Amino acid sequence: MNLTQIIRNLLPTRVEPTPSRQGEAMLSSLLVMAWVVEARDPYTGGHLWRVAQFCQLLAQKAGLDDAEVARITLGGFVHDLGKVGIPDAVLRKAGPLSDDEYAVIKTHPEIGYRMLHAHPLASLVADAVRLHHETPDGRGYPLGLKHGEIPRLASIVGICDAFDAMTSTRPYRAGMPQEKALGIIRENLGTQFDAVLGELFIQLGDAGVLTPIIGHTDHGIPLRHCGMCGPTVVLRRAHRAGDHVFCGNCGADYLLHQGPTNTLELQATGGNGSANDLSPKADVELIDALVQRTVLHV
User: Which of 17, 103, 151, 251 has the fewest Cβ atoms nearer than 10 Å?
Assistant: First the structure.
């Protein structure tokens, strides 16, 4: 199934199908918007890519068709779009949030939903952006929807988002082992997580297919550790020995060199990146690959 066919299947019937290149550009623009938002918080490096991969696996496990898998995968990548409106003091706080700060964080689904209105593909991912924190017990936000009212897309993204949050390291805590995070999902089936989809996700974990994604920012590329800040250094597929990379948190400069196992390793230079070095630059190669995998190879 090619891109034009996928877009034709995904778009509402009242929208004229777009040519292949236009459709690809629209998808890319949506993903770039989300990527730039993620770049504000170095401790969430790779979060959107990981959630998108988990979403694709879970949607496929649920037996959904190609077009729906594509839509859910895209939703997983853009779900946190609204965090662009959250102040850095809250978004990047190196510790647990206060009640007031948590109230600010809880505004991001509605902010993202409003941001999407002007985008031609808004209808594809609006539920993922607005409703991924809704829960079957009605205690989620922003609308307090209950079981039977939450779109399947939003339920899938919510499970995958929570799992990645639990297994990712933050400044104030280490990421949980996979087994513990899956145990929490199991304990909260039917309350925080959709019971059927949550059980399918646990089965994916038991089968070992989630493990290669945890802690990675692309297939086969794990997050690297800054000596001062932890797992905050993101490598790209195009990086080679001799390139400089920088910690997104403290700005430390690292030189890449070939390690004994033929992997790229970080060598601290003692310097810091310039303002230009540290400015967010979308990983166009990763985004293009995600677009192609999502709409062509599912």
Answer: 103
